[in-house]
């Protein structure tokens, strides 16, 4: 009987193995293109996938994933060969990906480059090579509630006057709010008078040249502390607080990006978008972020992936299709001109034109935590702005020097 | 069905139709499992993962033997548990220990072989490189031939990895639409771009030697020239840049030149005790360590004390038969336990919001100014205790309720006869007997809270930051959250190797503390007295 059982097991093993091997063979024979995208772009990518499949006979699979998950999952899965062929992500991932050897450089002709807004391509450039095809750029600007602030202030002095008049913390009413311990949203104030994170050299960012402890950055930090200590932008104001109060019509002005517009419209707020006010007569320069498509270095389908990008993402039609579902500023000049009559696009576009690309070098990882912590200390009034910014710069320099 | 004694020698005739069905099911299940496993093992082997493949085969053989041999019958009960224990406990621990001695992390994600392969396939375009349009043709057998436009009016034929000048007459090349590329090549079939795309699997592998250059596919429409950028020499384990002649040797996980210049990407290397040494010698890490350690200890101890006191108090109340609607109270009080902790924690963050939080609305109504719950070190700690009390008291209440009900009522009657007052009864009867049952659980709770990453990370994120700290260290950071921030937000990307090293140290700390705790509570002695 035991022998019979053994024989039967063996027979089943053979049968199942033959079937799975056949199925595996069939799988390996068909090429397909896998794209990881987040919720915002998927509706635009699905029709493109269908069209690609019809024309080339190759299946395109669009997988929806949380924005941050794309970054972490891609890092882990690409080297094993299990990753997607294309990902949709932010330009500041490029440095880490390129350093880890996970993304493929993209070759564009001069004419193809000319079709894009330079800041979008700069964002995806690392070590002199381009690693992504941008489809949108974005930067923060001033969004104001017309019911409370009829005309947006042009300078920070004007903004302070408006804010003092409107703010009444007991009624939970505020003139101006922004997430004040968040490095990304605070950057325009630091940059206005000459603060920067890493110097942009044209080739890329120089991790040895840090400008967070110069006079300009410290002047910005003083303004940040003043706003908090005066109670205009209370300490601990986070994004949710700012967003929630603005959507309830309790806030005159906020500083954030085009991603918030949809919510503002839905809340029925009569809003306008303006440039961030000047500070000491100098233009505030927000971070410019670029969104785009990157090609997996380990993908066996790199040529197909490039074909997909050339056909859909590097064209006006493709960029407009994505803009309709993900309304940030199109990165292709032709597509931008098509939608520039939209007041929001024009205003955010103007803000981005003042901005500087957010550094994409991996050393940026040393910045976020350090700057965030020191900004918190400044906002909480626990440390003097000058010494806090000096601490931040020193911590970043030390961390970069130590990195292996 | 036959009943009675069955001897292992003659098991055959048991079993009617039902048993035969079960037998078939078993054969089918085992066979399927083995086949899938064998297939996976073959894939692993082909990928060069020898040990996982060996472990897979060994596991399959053992499973099949255990579930078919009567001699291994008792093993059938333990085996599934053992397999999961190996997969979910032993393997992760082993992996963590292995990673702790490497530099695995940002900059060192790939294996050395993968990195060498990347450099070997890397080509560069020489300054005078050109691109060429091409047409593709397919012979009846499926062989691909490419015809490239070398210069206007001059064609070259690419076949079998070689390039030769075209002879339009002999090759039967005809340009029908006058676009400069042939549209026909004898009897071969011309391929459109879309048809070409279907054969990409082979096209992307193709390289054509052309003098000292290589032609490769740049897009579905163009070929480009290139040269190999690097050459790897296995004998000396060096990489040579073919453009400059510079030699790179593997140093600290990077191919490094004489002048110290590193080639990216790097690879994973064994770094010995470096990660452990760094914890002690790097002042930026070790300086906040003591403060963090003291707070971690206080956090775990006070949390347990608070949770236990609250749980005990409620349990004593609920255990009193004079209390009406006891079941209702009990259900309501258990509610916080039934909501997932991370949801509760996030909800509390909202309630504690300085500007718009409900708690500060109450504070304002009482006439005080808003409390900076998450901005001030003291209040941030108070807030954490509050949240964790909410999350943890129901557990303590449940276990003490159970333990209270197991205390024999004769003891209480005896105490009553002796004229003890309620407080004396509680102190001399209830509490000691209760502690026997619950103190091991308190030790467990201490160990759990020592590593309670969720609450800290979700409520304060370790903040508010310490003034002057050179690492991401906050006033409410406990060891595990400090580790997480050092390894993943410390600014050097993700450092899995370093994180693994610290978690091993934390594991040792918790193990030692728990051992001491068990000793001090004397649990084992008391339990043995009781038996």
Concise summary:
The complex is a heterodimer of chains A (404) and B (531). Chain A has helices at residues 2-29, 42-56, 67-77, 94-99, 110-114, 118-123, 156-166, 183-191, 215-229, 239-247, 261-266, 302-313, 316-325, 333-339, 343-354, 365-379, 385-402; strands at 32-37, 59-64, 86-90, 125-126, 129-130, 133-138, 141-145, 174-177, 196-200, 205-211, 251-256, 271-274, 287-295, 329-330, 356-357. With 404 residues, chain A is α/β, with parallel strands linked by helices.
For the largest interface, the chains and their residue counts are: A-B, 77 and 72 residues
Q: Which regions of chain B contain 5 or more consecutive residues with pLDDT less than 50? A: 1-13
Computed Rg of chain A: 25 Å
- Number of β-strand runs of chain B: 16
Structural class of chain A: alpha/beta
Major β-sheet of chain A, in short?
7 strands, mixed
What do the pLDDT scores of chain B average to? Answer: 84
What would you call the structural class of chain B? Answer: alpha+beta
- Roughly how many Å apart are the termini of chain B? 45 Å
Q: Please tally the helical runs of chain A, counting DSSP H or I stretches of 4 or more residues.
A: 17
Outline type of chain A:
globular
Strand content range of chain B: 5-15%
Helix content of chain A: 40-55%
Q: What's the average pLDDT of chain A?
A: 88
Instruction: Tell me how many strands of chain A there are.
Output: 15
The level of helicity of chain B is 55-70%
Radius of gyration of chain B: 36 Å
Family (chain A): Belongs to the bacterial solute-binding protein 1 family.
Membrane topology (chain A): Lipid-anchor
Signal peptide (chain A): 1-28
Keywords (chain A): Cell membrane, Lipoprotein, Membrane, Signal, Sugar transport, Transport
């Amino acid at each position: 009987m035991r022998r019979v059982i053994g024989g039967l097991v063996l027979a089943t093993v053979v049968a199942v193995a033959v079937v799975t091997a056949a199925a595996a063979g069939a799988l390996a024979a068909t090429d397909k293109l896998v794209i990881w995208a987040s919720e915002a772009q998927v509706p635009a990518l699905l029709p493109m996938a269908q069209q690609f499949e019809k024309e080339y006979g190759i299946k395109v699979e669009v997988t929806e994933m949380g924005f941050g998950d794309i970054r972490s999952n891609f890092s882990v899965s690409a080297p094993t060969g299990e990753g997607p062929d294309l990902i949709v992500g932010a330009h500041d991932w490029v440095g880490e990906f390129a350093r880890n050897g996970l993304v493929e450089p993209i070759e564009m002709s001069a004419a193809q480059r000319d079709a894009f807004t330079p800041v979008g391509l700069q964002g995806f450039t690392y070590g002199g090579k381009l690693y992504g095809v941008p489809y949108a750029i974005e930067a923060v600007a001033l969004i104001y509630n017309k019911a409370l602030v009829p005309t947006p202030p042009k300078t920070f002095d004007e903004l302070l006057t408006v804010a003092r008049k409107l703010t009444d913390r007991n009624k939970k009413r505020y003139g101006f709010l922004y997430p004040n311990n968040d490095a990304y949203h605070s950057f325009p104030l630091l940059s206005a008078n000459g603060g920067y994170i890493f110097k942009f050299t044209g080739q890329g960012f120089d991790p040895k040249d840090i400008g967070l402890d110069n006079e300009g950055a410290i002047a910005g930090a003083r303004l940040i502390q003043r706003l908090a200590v005066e109670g205009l932008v209370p300490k601990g104001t986070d994004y949710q607080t700012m967003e929630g109060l603005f959507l309830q019509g309790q806030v005159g002005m906020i500083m954030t990006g085009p991603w918030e517009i949809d919510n503002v419209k839905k809340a029925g707020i009569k809003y306008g978008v303006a440039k961030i006010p000047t500070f000491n007569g100098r233009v505030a320069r927000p971070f410019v972020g670029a969104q785009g498509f990157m090609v997996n270095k380990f993908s066996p389908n790199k040529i197909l992936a490039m074909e997909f990008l050339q056909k859909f993402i590097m064209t006006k039609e493709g960029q407009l299709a994505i803009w309709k579902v993900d309304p940030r500023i199109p990165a292709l000049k032709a597509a931008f001109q098509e939608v520039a009559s939209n007041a929001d696009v024009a205003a955010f576009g103007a803000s981005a034109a003042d901005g500087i690309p957010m550094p994409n070098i991996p050393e940026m990882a040393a910045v976020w935590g350090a700057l965030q912590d020191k900004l918190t200390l400044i906002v909480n009034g626990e440390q003097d702005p000058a010494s806090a910014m000096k601490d931040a710069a020193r911590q970043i320099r030390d961390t970069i020097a130590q990195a292996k | 069905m036959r009943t009675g004694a069955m001897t292992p020698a003659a098991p055959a005739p048991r079993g009617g139709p039902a048993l035969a069905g079960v037998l078939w099911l078993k054969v089918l299940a085992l066979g399927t499992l083995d086949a899938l496993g064998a297939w996976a093992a073959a894939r692993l082997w082909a990928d060069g993962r020898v040990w996982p493949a060996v472990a897979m085969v060994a596991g399959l053989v053992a499973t099949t033997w255990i579930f078919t041999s009567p001699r291994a019958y008792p093993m059938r009960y333990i085996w599934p548990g053992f397999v999961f224990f190996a997969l979910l406990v032993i393997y992760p621990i082993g992996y963590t220990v292995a990673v702790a001695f490497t530099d695995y992390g940002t900059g060192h994600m790939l294996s050395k072989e993968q990195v060498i392969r990347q450099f070997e396939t890397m080509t560069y375009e020489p300054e005078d490189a050109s691109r060429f349009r091409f047409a593709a043709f397919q012979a009846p057998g499926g062989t691909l031939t490419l015809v490239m436009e070398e210069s206007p009016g001059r064609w070259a034929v690419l076949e079998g990895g070689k390039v030769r000048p075209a002879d339009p007459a002999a090759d039967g090349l005809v340009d029908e639409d006058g676009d400069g590329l042939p549209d026909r090549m004898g009897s071969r079939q011309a391929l459109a771009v879309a048809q070409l795309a279907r054969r990409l699997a082979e096209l992307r592998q193709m390289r054509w030697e052309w003098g000292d250059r290589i032609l490769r596919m740049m897009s579905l429409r163009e070929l480009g020239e290139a040269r190999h950028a690097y050459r790897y020499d296995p004998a000396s384990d060096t990489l040579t840049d073919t453009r400059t002649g510079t030699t790179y040797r593997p140093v600290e996980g990077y191919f490094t030149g004489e002048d110290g210049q590193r080639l990216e990407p790097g690879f994973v290397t064994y770094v010995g005790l470096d990660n452990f040494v760094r914890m002690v010698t790097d002042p930026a890490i070790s300086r906040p360590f003591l403060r963090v350690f003291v707070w971690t200890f206080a956090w775990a101890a006070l949390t347990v004390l608070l949770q236990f006191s609250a749980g005990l108090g409620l349990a004593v109340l609920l255990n009193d038969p004079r209390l009406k609607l006891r079941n209702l109270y009990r259900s309501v009080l258990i509610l916080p336990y039934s909501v997932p902790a991370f949801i509760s924690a996030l909800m509390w963050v909202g309630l504690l919001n300085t500007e718009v939080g409900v708690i500060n609305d109450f504070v304002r109504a009482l006439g005080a100014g808003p409390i900076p719950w998450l901005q001030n070190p003291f209040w941030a700690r108070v807030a954490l205790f509050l949240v964790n009390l909410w999350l943890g008291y129901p557990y303590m209440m449940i276990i003490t309720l159970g333990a209270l009900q197991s205390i024999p009522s004769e003891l209480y009657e005896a105490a009553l006869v002796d004229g003890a007052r309620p407080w004396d009864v509680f102190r001399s009867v209830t509490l000691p007997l209760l502690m026997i049952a619950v103190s091991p659980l308190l030790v467990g709770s201490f160990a759990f809270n020592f590593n309670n990453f969720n609450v800290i990370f979700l409520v304060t994120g370790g903040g508010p930051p310490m003034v002057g700290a050179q690492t991401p260290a906050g006033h409410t950071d406990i060891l595990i959250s400090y580790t997480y921030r050092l390894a993943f937000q410390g600014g050097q990307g993700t450092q899995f190797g370093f994180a693994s090293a610290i978690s091993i140290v934390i594991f040792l700390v918790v193990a030692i503390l728990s051992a001491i705790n068990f000793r001090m509570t004397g649990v084992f002695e008391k339990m043995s007295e009781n038996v």
